[in-house]
Amino acid sequence: MKFETLYNESLAFWPDDIEIFDGERTDDGGILFLRLSLTYDRIDAEIKPLGEWYELMAWVIFKNLHQIGKKKFTPRTTTFSKTELDAERVKADLLDNLKVAGYEIMLAEFDGKNG
Predict the structure, then answer these.
(1) Over 60: is that where the pLDDT of 115 sits?
(2) Max CA-CA distance within the chain?
Protein backbone atom coordinates (compact mmCIF):
# COMPACT_ATOMS: atom_id res chain seq x y z
CA MET A 1 0.00 0.00 0.00
CA LYS A 2 1.37 3.38 -1.00
CA PHE A 3 1.35 5.91 1.82
CA GLU A 4 0.51 8.91 -0.35
CA THR A 5 -2.55 7.22 -1.85
CA LEU A 6 -3.76 5.94 1.51
CA TYR A 7 -3.21 9.31 3.18
CA ASN A 8 -4.91 11.41 0.49
CA GLU A 9 -7.88 9.10 0.06
CA SER A 10 -8.39 8.80 3.81
CA LEU A 11 -8.01 12.51 4.46
CA ALA A 12 -10.79 13.21 1.94
CA PHE A 13 -13.29 11.71 4.42
CA TRP A 14 -12.47 14.39 6.99
CA PRO A 15 -14.10 17.84 6.97
CA ASP A 16 -11.86 20.74 5.97
CA ASP A 17 -12.40 22.45 9.33
CA ILE A 18 -11.97 20.47 12.53
CA GLU A 19 -14.21 21.78 15.29
CA ILE A 20 -12.80 21.95 18.82
CA PHE A 21 -15.18 24.46 20.43
CA ASP A 22 -16.59 21.70 22.65
CA GLY A 23 -13.27 20.71 24.23
CA GLU A 24 -13.47 19.73 27.88
CA ARG A 25 -10.48 19.17 30.11
CA THR A 26 -10.48 15.79 31.79
CA ASP A 27 -9.35 14.92 35.32
CA ASP A 28 -6.20 13.26 33.98
CA GLY A 29 -5.08 16.42 32.17
CA GLY A 30 -6.34 15.46 28.72
CA ILE A 31 -8.94 17.15 26.57
CA LEU A 32 -12.04 15.48 25.18
CA PHE A 33 -13.34 16.86 21.88
CA LEU A 34 -16.77 15.24 21.58
CA ARG A 35 -17.44 16.55 18.06
CA LEU A 36 -14.06 15.32 16.82
CA SER A 37 -14.70 11.90 18.40
CA LEU A 38 -18.14 11.69 16.79
CA THR A 39 -16.64 12.69 13.45
CA TYR A 40 -14.09 9.90 13.80
CA ASP A 41 -16.83 7.38 14.65
CA ARG A 42 -18.77 8.39 11.51
CA ILE A 43 -15.67 8.21 9.31
CA ASP A 44 -14.64 4.86 10.78
CA ALA A 45 -18.05 3.44 9.85
CA GLU A 46 -17.91 4.95 6.34
CA ILE A 47 -14.36 3.82 5.67
CA LYS A 48 -14.73 0.27 7.03
CA PRO A 49 -15.77 -1.21 3.64
CA LEU A 50 -12.45 0.00 2.17
CA GLY A 51 -10.54 -2.33 4.48
CA GLU A 52 -8.09 -2.46 7.33
CA TRP A 53 -5.58 -0.05 5.77
CA TYR A 54 -8.19 2.70 5.69
CA GLU A 55 -9.49 1.92 9.16
CA LEU A 56 -5.97 2.19 10.55
CA MET A 57 -5.29 5.43 8.68
CA ALA A 58 -8.55 6.94 9.95
CA TRP A 59 -7.41 6.16 13.50
CA VAL A 60 -3.94 7.63 12.95
CA ILE A 61 -5.39 10.78 11.40
CA PHE A 62 -7.83 11.11 14.31
CA LYS A 63 -5.02 10.82 16.85
CA ASN A 64 -2.96 13.44 15.01
CA LEU A 65 -5.92 15.83 14.70
CA HIS A 66 -6.60 15.37 18.41
CA GLN A 67 -2.99 16.29 19.21
CA ILE A 68 -3.26 19.45 17.10
CA GLY A 69 -6.54 20.29 18.83
CA LYS A 70 -4.93 19.94 22.24
CA LYS A 71 -2.18 22.37 21.25
CA LYS A 72 -4.60 24.89 19.76
CA PHE A 73 -7.37 24.67 22.37
CA THR A 74 -8.24 28.08 23.78
CA PRO A 75 -11.57 29.85 24.36
CA ARG A 76 -11.04 31.77 21.10
CA THR A 77 -9.94 28.85 18.93
CA THR A 78 -13.01 26.97 17.77
CA THR A 79 -11.65 25.28 14.62
CA PHE A 80 -8.49 24.47 12.74
CA SER A 81 -7.82 23.15 9.27
CA LYS A 82 -7.09 19.53 8.48
CA THR A 83 -4.30 20.88 6.26
CA GLU A 84 -2.35 21.50 9.47
CA LEU A 85 -1.66 17.78 9.62
CA ASP A 86 2.00 16.90 9.16
CA ALA A 87 2.01 14.02 6.65
CA GLU A 88 5.45 12.88 7.82
CA ARG A 89 4.21 12.67 11.42
CA VAL A 90 1.17 10.70 10.23
CA LYS A 91 3.46 8.35 8.30
CA ALA A 92 5.67 7.81 11.35
CA ASP A 93 2.64 7.09 13.53
CA LEU A 94 1.24 4.70 10.93
CA LEU A 95 4.55 2.84 10.89
CA ASP A 96 4.54 2.66 14.70
CA ASN A 97 1.08 1.06 14.54
CA LEU A 98 2.21 -1.39 11.86
CA LYS A 99 5.08 -2.57 14.08
CA VAL A 100 2.64 -4.03 16.60
CA ALA A 101 2.16 -7.80 16.67
CA GLY A 102 -0.46 -8.91 14.19
CA TYR A 103 0.39 -6.30 11.54
CA GLU A 104 3.47 -8.03 10.10
CA ILE A 105 1.88 -8.66 6.68
CA MET A 106 0.64 -5.07 6.37
CA LEU A 107 4.06 -3.76 7.43
CA ALA A 108 5.67 -5.82 4.67
CA GLU A 109 3.17 -4.42 2.15
CA PHE A 110 3.69 -0.79 3.21
CA ASP A 111 5.31 1.55 0.69
CA GLY A 112 6.23 4.75 2.48
CA LYS A 113 7.73 6.42 -0.57
CA ASN A 114 6.01 9.49 -1.92
CA GLY A 115 4.72 9.47 -5.46
Answers:
(1) no
(2) 45
Question: For residue range 53-88, what is the model confidence (pLDDT) as tens digits?
Answer: 999 999 999 999 999 999 999 889 999 999 999 999
| Rounded-to-integer distance, Cα 36 and Cα 33, Å | 5
Instruction: State the average pLDDT for the chain.
Output: 95
CB-neighbour burial class of residue 51 (10 A; exposed 0-12, middle 13-18, buried 19+): exposed
List of residues 6+ apart from 55 with CB closer than 8 A: 44, 47, 48
Instruction: Provide the residue ranges of all domains of the chain, joining segments of one domain with +.
Output: 3-109
Query: Vertex 41, ends 102 and 2: CA angle to 5°?
Result: 50
